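Here is an idea for our session: we take a single protein and study its fold together. Once you have written the record down, we can walk along the chain together.
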Amino acid sequence: MNVPIANRPPMSTPKAFKMYRSLTSAEKESFKKVMKTSKRKSLTRLFGHAEILDEDSPDRASLFADVFGQPHSAEKDYLLRNEFRLLTDRLTEFIAEQEHAAFLYEQAGHADHMLLKGLLKRGLHSEYESQFKKLYERALQRLDFQSAHDMSNQHFNYVMTHKEIRPESVRKALHLLEDNADNSKLHHRTELAINLQGQAALKAMLRTFGHATETASAPEPESTPYIRYFEAVALAHGSEGHARVDHAHEAVAQIGTLQHLFPKHMLDGLALLAGAYFGLRMYEEAAEHYLHVVGFAETERLPLRHDVLYNYCSTLMKLRRHEEVIQLMADHKTIFTNARVRFKFECFLAMVHIFMNNPEKARATLSADIGHRPEMENNYFRFIFCILPYLCNDVEEGLRETENFIAYFNYHKGKLDFFHEKEVAQAYRLFYLGLALADKEDRKDRMRKVTEALDRFTGNHPQYIDFQYVAWLYEHAQKVMEA
């Protein structure tokens, strides 16, 4: 049955259009210039649709008629498919070129090595010799031992193949191999230090869940400030208390000598130091260091990690600087791109409004798509809805929310990663049961049981001490006890 064009549903967004829309603004401008060189008018017209369309696409018949100037038919549909294939090929090639250009920019040593290789391949020996020492030294200055190693190997082969065999040339070749051995060791040590730092970070995460882990390995002798930075970071992740702060200071000191080469690592070091103070609950010091982190990121035009922003916000929350939290999140809203991060900050912002006693704004902050929330963020969402009735003086609704939440845990028993959070939900139920009591002493006794339950929970799960919904319940149970 033929469906009238006006009634045909729009086709799904083609791959080529999705690829084009994924480009940055600058990349789109560059790709437009590429397409201007195309002599294929049908391809140019098809690209015009990628330019003007939003998420929806026109029906296939309308698109075909616009591209080819004739009615669409099943027999001729291959023409449109071919144009889409050509546009996809152009975009695929363009994206690969963009990433290759970015790689060469980031890996300057690789580009230098390829230049030297190209000069040798073309027999330009004098040009090669004039460039080698300069580019080799530049690689060492960048602590790019892999490129220095590759250049040195290449130069050794050049000396042995193209230079006259004399004591001096043999001595130079020997020195090259000796240097290369050092470069190999330093490259290995650098990669090992980076690997061990990553291991230490993961072990630190496991410890927050109560899993025992081994301590970090002792540093090896061959070293550079870059290597010592990663070693200090690994030691910081493996330490607690003031030792963690000391190792973080050492990491910043080491990478500070190279921050012109590695600004991103400098940013990570500064964030590690701020986080170390946060872990000690030295919130004033942490806030000062986090402010430095944000300033450095802005100066160097580096993106701020979402976990750093979250901990900075948590620090300001501890200091009751709520307006600053709201402004900070507004200034960095582009960070909230993936669902997990968005839901996490959504809940956090709701808690800010809760501490500011504004239930309407807290409720408005939360999106309705609860089914897409990861488990921990889903639980956080439910805890917020356990708090909101208190702000509205609705004890009955609060009790109903907490009992529904406990029922959720019971129903999914054995299937949840964070089933232990049921203990907090039960503490919230105790809280509302206590509020419903008429006798003041009975109410105080019930609130004492709430704080004792939270003490037991955070004793078994210390990572929850700084969770806002735990802190809120503890604080308000104590207020009722002191009333």
User: Anything to note?
Assistant: The first helix runs from residue 15 to 21. The CA atoms of residues 252 and 269 lie 5 Å apart.
